[in-house]
Every structure is written in structure tokens, then in C-alpha cells.
Design a protein that fits this description.
single chain; 149 residues; mainly beta; Immunoglobulin-like; 4-stranded antiparallel β-sheet; 1 helix; 10 strands; 6% helix; 38% strand; elongated
Length: 149
């Protein structure tokens, strides 16, 4: 019996946890949000950029008409397909009439895709009232005074 005990105490067991580490760039992004905004310089527009599954998680950058803009919203990271991570972030801004037709773009990169960012864009199609200013004119014709509006 002691030999059996000795054999058992001399036996070594090793538990090895195998973890597959992989790196995958985001392949695409999607922009969603309220596209029906009345552009009066006061109404807020919120757009959300979401990536597909990537590893490590992607970073998101926002651009309006080619200019980098800052989103003060936190990035949300959730579990994605095949052990990857899905990243999303909101962009809040107040569009003006002058922004009608501007392009809003989101780009997603990680260490695998620094040079080839996944991106998507939307064209702002804003509703706005056209403001016409009435110009009063006073003209005199043959001694009569006429007012035009």
C-alpha cells in the first residue's frame, strides 16, 4: 500500500488552459439613427455607428464633410461572433441649414486595420424652412406713390 501511495504522490498532473488568441479587423460599419430632423439650429440629431465583430475591439472616428469631429459619448463594447467584440458609439450634433447635403462618416479601426478602416457614410437630407425676407420698396410713378411688398 505504501508503494501505491508513493506512486500517487509522485504522479504529476498538469492542467493547461488553451486560449486561442486571434486578431481580426472590423470588416464593416453601419450608421443608424434619426434621419428625420428639422434643421433649425436647435434640434439635436443622434447617429450611431456600429461595427461587426472584431478582435481587439475597434476604435470609432466620426467625420462631417471630411473633418474629424469628437463624440463625447462613451464607446459601447459587446460580445460578438466567434469571440470577437462589437463596438458602437453615438454622435450627437445640432445640424444647421448649411449642413444639408453634408456627408457624415464613421470609420472603425483596430491594430489589424490601421491603414484599411471599415467605414460607412450618410448624406444629410435635412428638412428646413426657407426664410424669405420681405423687402419693402417705395417707388414713385408719375406723381403716385406705390408700395411693393
Amino acid at each position: 500500500m505504501s508503494k501505491i501511495r508513493d506512486q500517487r504522490t509522485m504522479e504529476t498532473r498538469a492542467c493547461v488552459k488553451i486560449q486561442s488568441l486571434f486578431s481580426v479587423s472590423p470588416r464593416y460599419t453601419n450608421i443608424s439613427g434619426n434621419e428625420d430632423v428639422f434643421a433649425n439650429g436647435m434640434n439635436k440629431m443622434t447617429l450611431t455607428c456600429s461595427t461587426d465583430s472584431s478582435s481587439p475591439a475597434a476604435s470609432i472616428s466620426w467625420y462631417i464633410s471630411g473633418r474629424l469631429v469628437t463624440s463625447y459619448k462613451n464607446i459601447s463594447i459587446n460580445n460578438g461572433d466567434f469571440g470577437g467584440l462589437v463596438t458602437s458609439q453615438e454622435l450627437d450634433f445640432v445640424p444647421s441649414r448649411a449642413m444639408d447635403g453634408d456627408i457624415v462618416e464613421c470609420k472603425a479601426t483596430n491594430e489589424r486595420s490601421l491603414e484599411n478602416a471599415a467605414s460607412s457614410s450618410v448624406v444629410l437630407n435635412l428638412r428646413c424652412k426657407h426664410i424669405l425676407f420681405a423687402i419693402l420698396q417705395k417707388k414713385t410713378v408719375s406723381g403716385l406713390s406705390l408700395h411693393f411688398r
